[in-house]
């Protein structure tokens, strides 16, 4: 799945398959400017910052169990969001620090390091990585991902895929080759 925010004419947090199909709202009411997203892959929760409404919220992948975790002026200065174990990790443009925040109650805020600037933040840890299994976009014997001549995108599950073409090309009638 691909998770994303949009704060154009109508702000929302959404998800879709990697090929853009099956677009689903996670949150579309009570939002103004959702920016950073973080996923709890184990428990299937999505977290987001709304810098206009000054809140950090959470909902499950279906948009249920939505609640605000942190509200207040400190949110407006946060950039990027990552979650790992009991903490959020984010960057404060106000004091140029990487912050660690208790993800269950918003307390226990600690500055971990100071940086001149940052816009995004990710935590990489072996335990947080999901196991990779065989999938529809693996290289075929001819070195083409999923048998697609240009781009292979996973679809509704790991066994399904959609082929796409780079700019300037169109997908052939076989659904795999680009011309």
Automatic annotation (TrEMBL):
Coiled-coil zones: none
Molecular function in Gene Ontology: Wnt receptor activity; Wnt-protein binding
GO BP, sorted A to Z: canonical Wnt signaling pathway
Highest taxon in the source lineage: Eukaryota
Cellular component GO terms, alphabetical: plasma membrane
Chain segments annotated as transmembrane: none
Protein name in UniProt: LRP1B protein
Pfam families: FXa_inhibition, Ldl_recept_b
């Amino acid at each position: 799945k691909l998770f994303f925010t949009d704060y154009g004419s109508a702000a929302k947090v959404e998800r879709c398959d990697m090929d853009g199909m099956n677009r689903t709202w996670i949150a579309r009411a009570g939002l103004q400017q959702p920016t950073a997203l973080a996923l709890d892959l184990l428990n299937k929760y999505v977290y987001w910052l709304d810098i206009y409404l000054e809140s950090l919220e959470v909902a499950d992948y279906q948009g249920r169990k939505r609640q605000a975790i942190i509200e207040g002026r400190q949110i407006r200065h946060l950039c990027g969001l990552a979650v790992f174990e009991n903490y959020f990790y984010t960057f404060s443009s106000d004091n140029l620090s990487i912050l660690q925040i208790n993800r269950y109650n918003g307390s226990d805020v600690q500055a971990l390091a100071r940086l001149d600037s940052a816009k995004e933040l990710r935590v990489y840890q072996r335990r947080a990585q999901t196991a990779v299994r065989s999938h529809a976009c693996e290289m075929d014997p001819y070195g083409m991902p999923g048998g697609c001549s240009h781009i292979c995108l996973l679809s509704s599950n790991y066994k399904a895929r959609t082929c796409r073409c780079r700019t300037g090309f169109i997908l052939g009638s076989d659904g795999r080759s680009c011309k």
